[in-house]
Amino acid sequence: MSLSGIIRTYALPDAEARKLCAPDEHCTSVAEIDFEELWNAGRRHLVFDVDGTLTRYHSPVPGPGVMGALRKASSLGFAMCALSNDVESDRVKSLEVMLEMPVFMASPKKPHPRALKPAMRYFELRNCNNLVVVGDRLLTDILVGNRVGAYTILADPFQDNNDPFGIAVARLYERVLYRI
């Protein structure tokens, strides 16, 4: 990313930017999501972020409570997939098997709206009216969901997520400026 891109990304947000980065819901983990309420509201498709939401950062296994939550969502009839900015294809392939859902690589990366195209094609959707985007980052997951009109849920990252320095700084920025 160029210097101007970094400045634009991390500049103090105006009211419109704050609104685009505000989730519709905030929960402590994927296990805390009320999938029945989402289903009753007519939502049928779930897109999950991977690192920090379904797994600890760069972990090859799902985090605590994730599999139970995914089973509950699946039993209600949700169509699900995961979307990652990561490029480690071996890890992604093993996660697809464990999570029992496709894991797509975001290209371009989130928060670009086209990052959701693989999920939209998989779900055969033309719009995002009943799509739910679940993630742990305001400036990537929540922003991409809000930019396309999806319902967004911010899940707190795992406590021992082991974030790289750049992501840890970005999380601090998000929490301070957006008061989440």
Give the full name of the CATH homologous superfamily.
HAD superfamily/HAD-like
Mean pLDDT across all amino acids? 87
What is the CATH class? Alpha Beta
| Number of helices in the DSSP assignment | 8
Number of strands: 6
**Estimated helix fraction:** 40-55%
Task: Indicate the overall shape.
Answer: globular
The CATH architecture name reads 3-Layer(aba) Sandwich
Strand content: 15-25%
**Unreliable stretches:** none
First-last Cα distance: 26 Å
* Largest sheet data: 6 strands, parallel
Give the SSE order as H and E letters. Answer: HHEHEHEHEHEHEH
Backbone CA Rg: 15 Å
Strand order of the largest sheet: 1-6-5-2-3-4
Domain module count: 1
CATH topology: Rossmann fold
* Oligomeric status: single chain
Structural class: alpha/beta
What secondary-structure arrangement, pairings included, does this model have?
Blueprint: H1 3-10, H2 15-20, E1 25-27, H3 35-40, E2 45-49, H4 66-76, E3 79-84, H5 89-99, E4 103-105, H6 117-123, E5 131-135, H7 138-148, E6 151-155, H8 165-178
Parallel strand pairs: 1-6, 2-3, 2-5, 3-4, 5-6
Characterization of this structure:
With 180 residues, this protein is an alpha/beta fold. It has a single domain, classed as HAD superfamily/HAD-like (Rossmann fold). Helix content is 41%, strand content 15%. The chain is built from 8 helices and 6 strands. It has helices at residues 3-10, 15-20, 35-40, 66-76, 89-99, 117-123, 138-148, 165-178, and strands at residues 25-27, 45-49, 79-84, 103-105, 131-135, 151-155. It has a 6-stranded parallel beta sheet with strand order 1-6-5-2-3-4. β5 (131-135), α7 (138-148) and β6 form a beta-alpha-beta unit. The longest helix is centred in the last third of the chain and has 14 residues, at 165-178. The two termini are 26 Å apart.
